Amino acid sequence: GHAPVSLMDQLRRLAPELAAPAERLPFNVVCRGPQNFNWAEISLADVQAVKQACGATVNDVALAAITLAVRRYAALHGVRLQGRRLRIVVPVSVRAKNEMNELGNRITFLPVCIPLDIRDPQKLIAAVREKMQVAKTSHVAELVGFAGALLGATPIPVQALLGSIASHLPLSVCNLIFTNVRGPETPLYLLGHRMLSCYPYVPIGGEMGINCALLTYHGTAYFGFTGDVHAAPDLSRFEDFLVKSFAELRAVAAMPSRQRRRNRQEAKVESVASAA
Asked: Distance from CA of residue 232 to its chain's centroid?
């Protein structure tokens, strides 16, 4: 009979760029110290404006903002950006609509490779959208779904293992995790006191010295950055980098629609040319 096909063999066939070793960024070292936490917030209305202008999703816009922020961080540390890719692990719910009331999570992981050398914000969003569509329509998520099944089977308090589980996915190296959680659209109260803000936290583990999460709550997109104190001693820079990066994306929404359409067509042409 035929020899069994390994997960990595299947991954090489479905997505060669994911099977190849990812290039480490300055924060991709073994986590060995305490963790720092940093945060930033963006108006959800502004996120929605970019989403509408670019024909994208909130997740696409957030991923583009994170990529631009990492680009700034990498440049600060002298990383050569030409030809570099950022490999992000995106946890995605696979719960059916009729299962929404069940306890626990059912998730899988989508590994997405995003170019770090795209300077134009609209072209970057187009690239992110394309990468997410390919990841969702291929069978890559099924190959790494075993980790999601392990995580979904654990009690919710134990799901802090997300970082360590994802760090052992059948991928050579993942640069970071980014998870997007849709929170309440109306304010929450406890004993008559309104919750003013809510910043999400994602553990770190393996060689992912920085991870990030987004939680939308009452008109605001709250970003939380977790970092190993040794791998990312300057984690606090991410607040400024994210705000500046999103300002670039917000400028796209302010463009005349004719200019946005022209940029979108140019992005499609470049994408076809790079695929060839």
From this structure: 18
